[in-house]
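Quick question, first post here. What does this chain look like in 3D?
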Amino acid sequence: MRLDDPKLKKIEPPRLSLADRFFLPQVAAGLLVTGKHILDVLIKDTAITVQYPEVQHVPSPVYRGVHRLNKDEEGRPKCVACMLCATACPAHCIDIVGATAPESWPDREKYPESFVIDELRCIYCGMCEEACPVEAIELTGLYDLTGLSREEMIFDKTKLLSVFDVTRDAEPMKFTTPPPAGTGPTQALESPVS
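> Answer (accepted):
Ran it through. Tokens below.
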């Protein structure tokens, strides 16, 4: 299309008033919203921030935090190395190496010789938890996970089982044991990473 084409329609930019040129209406609208929040906090006490880390945030019951590998009644990993969690993971952050279970474990054919989750790659969608047929993997309420290197954020089987040890009292297994009275999945927990 040429610039002198008669079908070409020119659109003029809107004329701005003096207030619009200095963004006064937008600044006033922003100050109004900020003032409303300040009044809500002062009058209605609707503050949603906490003085972290002195005051621990209590996440929602549906919050998905750090993974844990559940143990059975004998202290063994519940995982049967079926690879469904790794297959369902859209972020491909789970790596499992299965091995034949010892003969002293008659309830399963395989167990995870190696079970690794890259917590930095995970998108915490919960698909691994949904896919697991034996409820071996769960997402906990842990949210204050930090590390000084990428390697610290890659959780192996030992670290995932230690998350279970840290969280089992505050967050019992969702599908096999009912939570004891007075405890729930929304308690502040200690981080397993030191």
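The radius of gyration is 26 Å.
The chain has five helices and five strands.
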